[in-house]
## 1
Amino acid sequence: MTSPSFASVAQSSPEQGSVSPQDAQALHRSLFTLDSHIDIPWPDRDDAFSLTSDRHVDLPKMQRGGMSAGCFVAYIGQGPTTAEGHAQARQQCLDMLDAINRMQGEHNGVTARVCSTVAEIDAARAAGAIAVIPAVENGYGMGEDLAMLERFRAKGARYVTLTHNGHNVLADAAIHRPSLGDEPQRHGGLSALGRDAVAEMNRLGLLVDVSHAAKSTMLAAVQVSATPVVATHSCVRSLCDHPRNLDDEQLDALRASGGVIQITAMPAFLKPKPEEGKRTAGVADFVDHIDYVVRRIGVEHVGISSDFDGGGALADWQDATQGVNLTAELMRRGYDRSEIAAFWGGNFLRLLDRAEQVARG
């Protein structure tokens, strides 16, 4: 896969090129389209197969929007790093993974399969089923028990986000939580347990997700991990100076590791806050971040996530029915089918496959 030239990407604009809605829809529905980070409601409402009014992502919306797959996360907010806090986090994480595992079968004209390998994802696509890929957001969910990682993997999880907002026993977060007693740094990156956790994740085929991690944590993970790391829902710091975004040094480290940054639909990560008025962002702003990563480190190192139902939403990508708007914008920028396919899932699948290879030894 070749990247667009620096000149062609740098000079492109939302106005450049004409793309018909029919052409965009035809391309979008021909692609394997994967959203690498979607939250679920909690407590579980057993409504994934219903066309809901308040979820940005449910399975009928994915079907209507031509979405092939989604990584649904068991998100655990950071709490006290105590025995009681860890016990509660572990149980909630397992319960949430069980809820994600119930998102399969055929209901209301929608077929979905929970998939824990690339082969299963490919088989779901061939069968016309939506692939539901479980994941864990926040290593707090394992507490201090490395054996929990094997339990997560047994429930189909394919990645673990090392931290959320607030340091945990594994690593420092990009955003510390003074309300939890956090200093700006706790470990200076990965703790000794965090390094062991990365090695165990490599053994099990779990990708190491560095979204939410401090820069020191992210760079340490790149050095320690035997598989490329992924940022499943982050943006570019050079375009928007937010601590959750990756700077140029981190992007270069990602390229060196073979990793991927999945740009996400969070306006606060996409555009600086205006002096007056409300911050808004759209797919053009989103693709600006893809353009930047392509110029900096190449087509093969960037992908797409929404963070829907976890705060993500754009003016023209409000839910899982509207992914075609992103495809149309990529077409307007001059990306070809192979490049758009790489962004929409090909690059992320490559990392999943690599993790499986390392796990097999």
## 2
Amino acid sequence: MYLLSVGFGYNIYKFYRLVKRGIIIMKIHKNAILLFTVLAFWIVACSDSTNVVATVNGTKITRKTYESTLDNLILQQTQNNPAFVDNEQTRLLLGQIALDQIITNEVLAQEARKANITVKNEAVNQSINNLKQLLAVDENGKAITDKRQIENKFNKKLKADGVTLQQLKANIRKELSVQLFLKDLSNKQKIELSEETLKKFYDDTMAVVSKNQHKITSLSKEDLALIAPFAAGVEKASAERVAASIVFLAISDDMDEKMIANKKDLANKIARELKDNKIAFTQAIQAYSDDKSALQTNGEKILIRGTLPKDIDKKIFEARLGEVFGPITDQAGIYILRVNEKRAAHTLTYGQLRQDIINYLISVALQQKIQQQVKDLVQKSKVEIFLPQYKVNNTQAAAH
């Protein structure tokens, strides 16, 4: 599987595993249909039943649960989307999405119980440990290694959110049961792809990659929407690229001239030490770089031709192998680099991409099938909504 070998793979179950890190990824759209909930584990069902916003097959959804979910969505949108504006219109739309999430999640949890799906204690405990690790960072972004300190921070988080450990575990168990139920639905699907379908998808993908306008205009909007993500991955995997070690010193708008000058002096010092072999790149990245993500891949990053600012792009792709060059400054900061490997642009064959095409098309087909099945489950449920702005009292309240 060629694309998988360069880090461009498709996880069939990715669409419901986002919950592992409490990440919410979505595009706000007035006709948004959510397949399932991606609730943070911290949001627990509130026992206060005096203010109910909805019921799902008789199970009450409280205003506190709804508002906590809405607040979480707004926070995630604010963090993930710089253009996000928190106003009445977006809050109304996110409120509908939050309500749909809660209702869909409750329906799926009820179905998981009907299917006698059980979650092992080990899985719940592992999720608790994962949550603790997410909190194992101090105010300066440095990792906390002391177990007692991590435990104290975890307990403070529980107290601040008004959540007991028992409530948290119950919610984790519920969320994991939903994941297992969805996985079970996926495993029951039978999806067959003909060789003709695979080859046509390859040909259409290569037309998009090569920007063959005549061929592209002959494709339907639906076909283009299906092909585009895969074609982007193929383009990235086949483009001219280099593997480079990079030390990056960030420059922000709030820095004065003296601070910037100090950064430049430091960059010159780092460059001299690297050129004189007084320090290894991995050591320099660890000690000085404001971007340490390359340490996860042995100090290297893959850079694609044409994706960087023109001046930097030109210098990197014209650099000799093993040459340390820089400092180079742009608006974002200062770079010191060394090119470790070069690879020319090339065309990926059908044979190289065949398995990735199969994985991708199965993944998409699974999502579509499960989306419809989940939608049907929600439609068959008795849902009553009591919020005036969303009030619909029928079985299709959460399926629009």
